[in-house]
């Protein structure tokens, strides 16, 4: 007899009796079916023989009040077919990690959900779960979501980076394998019958559920509380994880890394990790979405006469921009494909803003040249338009 049988086989159905059938009703049903499918009466009929075996097996369990009780509790606990202890142990939505709970051979949630049961049936149902009464069902629990922060350099944020992240989260206590019990044999919480939740009627036919106060929602209560975790079954665990931050994150962005949060309990999935990213400013470059920005000083003659201007890029060789003659101060030009990496692998642009600088500390020759320029442009009033406009309004 295996747990799998207990969970998957519906002996009541086999005998065609209701779940609350009396012993006499079960006996009567069994006798009738046994006569009908007895091999002596069905010579050479394999199907009948198979059926007879099923009937006998069902009677072995349901006809014995102790076995019947264990069977009922096992089915109540693991759900009617909701739990499938297949080779992967991960079928259905309920994957009970016995290795964890009982501190036995560590099967783990992924590999050996079924292995954890092997042979230990009597202990499991005779010891732990019998105390909980019927209607017991231990729920898997999703791990906590964890929030963390990371500070990246400007370049790391643009290119993406793998950074170490030290996190603390709740994990099963190592000393008691998460049972909360010194001997690894907690009992099912009598208040919530292992569900971790209690219903509270509202009188209108509705009921609300609250986390069970007695077991703090765990469904289990330590008989002899673990000294390390004081019976909670949980411990703080610190771990350092390498986290990949995608290219193109910006300052203040919160990114979600699915399944990188706290570990789940009793086969529940892990929580998520949220990382708030801080990005250090760069002394030269700025960000505007996928584009990078840079301000480049040009002198008056470059702006007036035009010319080629070398512009630095982030992490690459400089690019040369052609400055048209008569470029005004503050004009922005675009160096295509020299910006931040986008999700699809292409790059944004580098937006280059020119800043016309005023020369100081002129040499005699430069001063003479500028005086000559002033003479040459004496007839032009740079504020003529300003005054015109001021009058007009
Ligand atoms: Zn409880
Ligand atoms: Zn403990």
Descriptive report:
Zn(2+) 2 binds at residues 189, 192, 212, 215. A zinc finger (CR-type) spans 160-238. Its cofactor is Zn(2+). Among the domains are: 3-129, Helix Hairpins; 286-387, Urease metallochaperone UreE, N-terminal domain (HSP40/DNAj peptide-binding domain), CATH 2.60.260.20. It is built from eleven helices and 15 strands. It has helices at residues 3-8, 11-15, 23-37, 46-62, 65-78, 98-102, 121-128, 154-159, 300-305, 364-376, 384-392, and strands at 146-152, 161-172, 187-188, 197-201, 207-211, 220-221, 234-245, 254-257, 273-279, 286-288, 291-299, 307-311, 319-323, 332-335, 350-357. A four-stranded mixed sheet has the order 10-11-15-14. Strands 1-9-8 form a three-stranded mixed sheet. Mean pLDDT is 79; it is low at 80-136. The structure holds zinc ion (2 copies). One zinc ion is lined by residues 189, 191-192, 196, 212, 214-215, 219.
